[in-house]
Each structure stands twice: as C-alpha cells, then as structure tokens.
Amino acid sequence: MSHVLKDVKDPEIPNQQGDISEVLQQISVCKGIVGHVKRTRIQAKLDTTLKQAVSTRWNSNLRMLQSVLSNTDQLKKFADEFADKTLQRSLLDVNVELLKQVVSVLEHFEAATQLLSTDRSPSLHLVYATKVQLSKKLRTQNGDGPIIGELKARLMSRLEANFHVQPLHWLATLLDPRLKTGILGAQQKLDAVTALRALLAEVEDSTAASDASDSASTSASCEPPAKRSKLEIEQAASSDFFADLFSSSAETAEVNEVDDYLASTDSTSDVLSFWAAKQKQWPRLSQAAKWVLSTPATSTSSERVFSVAGRTLDDRRSQLKPETVDGLLFLHGLSD
After folding, report:
1. If 289 and its partner were Cys, which of 113, 275, 279, 318 is the partner (CB 3.0–4.6 Å)?
2. Which residue in 22, 118, 115, 33 sits closest to 67, CA to CA?
3. What is the pTM of this model?
4. Pseudo-torsion of CA 125, 129, 134, 136, nearest 10°?
5. What are 69-108's pLDDT values in tens digits?
6. Whole-angstrom Cα distance, residue 91 to residue 30?
7. Where do the structural domains in the chain lie, given as residue ranges?
8. Residue range 254-272, pLDDT digits in tens
9. Are the C-beta atoms of residues 29 and 94 closer than 8 Å to each other?
C-alpha cells in the first residue's frame, strides 16, 4: 500500500488512465499538519492525539488520515484560539470528503493486516479468503469518482503482484469448514484435496513410527516376549500374505475421512475447537489439520517478540541473565 501512495505515476502499472496526485497532496498536507501540531501545545489539548505516518509501519498513512479527520473540528477551534496562521492555512487545504473516501478504501487493508497478524488464533486458512475479499472491496463502484477509481485500480494491481497465494494456503482454506465450498476454484480444490490425501499418508507414517518407537522402548525395558502360539504364527503368516489387500483397506478408511469431511455440513466459528471435537471421528484428518493450521500466516508474532526483547535487554539492562529475560518475555506475552 505504501508503494501506491508514493508516486503520481506508478512505473509498474502500464497504460494508466489517470493519476492520484490529489490523494498524495492530501497526504502531504496531513503530514504537515501532524508535524506542526506535535511541535505546539495544541497536541496536548486534543481529545485524541494525531498520528504521524511512518514508512516502516504498516497502514500508518491510514492512521494519520483517521486521526486528522477525527480532530478536524478541534484543530480549527484551537487554530483560531491560538491565532495559528500556519495551521489555519493548512486546514483550508484539507479536502475532508476526499479523505473520507480514501480512508474507506484503506480500512480494508487494516482489517486484513489485523486478521493475518494475529498470534492467538490460526490465520493460515484466512490468507486466500483475505485476498478474495480485498479483491471484492477494490472493485470500482458506481459512486466512485475518477480519483478513487484510479486508487483502487493501483491497489488491485499491487495486490495481484505482491500478495502471493501458495498451494498450502488452498489446503489450509479447505480445512476451514466455513470455506471448504464456494471460495476455491475447481482446480484449486482438486489440488488441495490431493495434497490433503498425501498429508494423511504422512500422518499414518508418523503415527506408525511413533508406535514403533514406543514399542521398542517398552520391549527394551521388559522381559523377552513369550513364544508365540501356533495360532499367532498362522495369523502372522496370513497378514503377510494379504498385506497389500489389508493396506488397501486401510487406505480406503483414510480416504473416507476426507470424503466424510467434504460431505459434512458441520461448521463453527472456531476452527481449532472444530478439529478438537472431531478428533475421534477423523483422527488422522484432525492431526493433519493441526499440522497445517499451526503455521502462522505471517512472521508478525516473532517480530513482536524480537521488538520486545530489544526493549527489555537494552544497554542499561545488559547484565540480565538469560532465564530472567525469558521470564520477562513470557510475562509480557501473558499481559497482551
């Protein structure tokens, strides 16, 4: 979004029909207002402080525009009260109606950022749905003027170029009972189902390896097993002889978990609770869902931890022990 709100002409978008110079001008005016107010006593008198746009912060232009819009009346009042000519002239350049339209467009990106940056609930299954929803919000409406239409077109172009959806995202989407139908295209759903069946095989291998490890550990700590009876030997021979048929039956059972899930109409707003409740009904599928949905959509969570660690372990606290730092970061996480 910051790339779009930087240049009158976007060099990466061919055949542009117009420009967004007026939007960029309004952003520049708001930056000037915020910078001026922060240097005066007016900032302390506002009910909500103004926010300056910072290039390294997501959606900071939006927050700046929102703060200016919400304080317009108070800014005019204090500009007159303190005879602040600079602020008065700047406020005359503010196009409130255009700013409201720009904010209504950019707010969708703020919502998308919040959804995909969460660290207290799964987010990977929302990636593809987020792109679909943003694409809908950026379609030109009848009431859009040429400036807003051009802004939406540029945002749409950047969305297609920079918002990359991978097969893993389609698989995660399939594992959300609310999104498994209707949102995925035919080929996308086919690829996701194929990937899910392959993942079930990995779950089976992992479960078998775990069982073998537990069995070996138990055998090592116990007495040697007694000799097998004649019946047990015959049953083992039968299992070896029909191994391929028996394994086919097992694979069919695994496939049925996927088919049963796809045919199910059960749904919930909490994806984790859904799969926890289905653990007995679809054990392998539930395990596969846990593997996939435990992957965060973004690296925001780890970046937050690094930021908190940097503020905790500064030059004045360089002698903190590692276990103390761990404890402080843990407590900070609980307080969020």
Report:
1. 275
2. 33
3. 0.77
4. 180
5. 999 999 999 999 999 999 999 999 999 999 999 999 999 9
6. 9
7. 21-164, 166-215+254-298, 300-335
8. 568 999 999 999 988 899 9
9. yes
